[in-house]
Amino acid sequence: LKVRVVRSSPPSSQFKATFQESYQVYKRYQMVIHKDPPDKPTINQVRLVPVSFEDPQFKSSFNQSASLFAKYQMSVHKDTPSDCGENEFTRFLCDSPLEAEHAPNGPECGYGSFHQQYWLDGKIIAVGVIDILPYCVSSVYLYYDPDFSFLSLGVYSALR
């Protein structure tokens, strides 16, 4: 087994030379493991959404995220329904002391608190709550649909 680190951005000559082969492996993986049809688009399966009730993506996915949080907490941590309602979800994972900031030399998404949503077949199956800061990314919490625990989404999220 040989492992190479190939710069993808900006694309190196190695990246360009192996792009089609890498893409074909990715496409086959998606079809075999996730049962994707050969022509299924895969863009937007992971979304980085700012934690802000002003953000349309955050607002539109809030109920689904809160429901997934409750399912996770009750299944994995054996919380009662009253321990993981919308108010508890908001207090624990949406209210943040960080303020959003867009620095000229910073990342395109800016700095602040984000929900990194993992989508599969139009449904959120995991959410990584992260803070993006000038010199680090801090993983605050991760919750996932217990029906997908076989995917080891916590490990995947940490590596991502």
Automatic annotation (TrEMBL):
GO terms for molecular function: arginyl-tRNA--protein transferase activity. InterPro entries: N-end_Aminoacyl_Trfase (IPR030700), N-end_Aminoacyl_Trfase_C (IPR007472). It comes from the Eukaryota. GO terms for cellular component: cytoplasm. Residues 66-160 form the N-end rule aminoacyl transferase C-terminal domain. Keywords: Transferase. This is ATE1 transferase. The gene is Ate1.
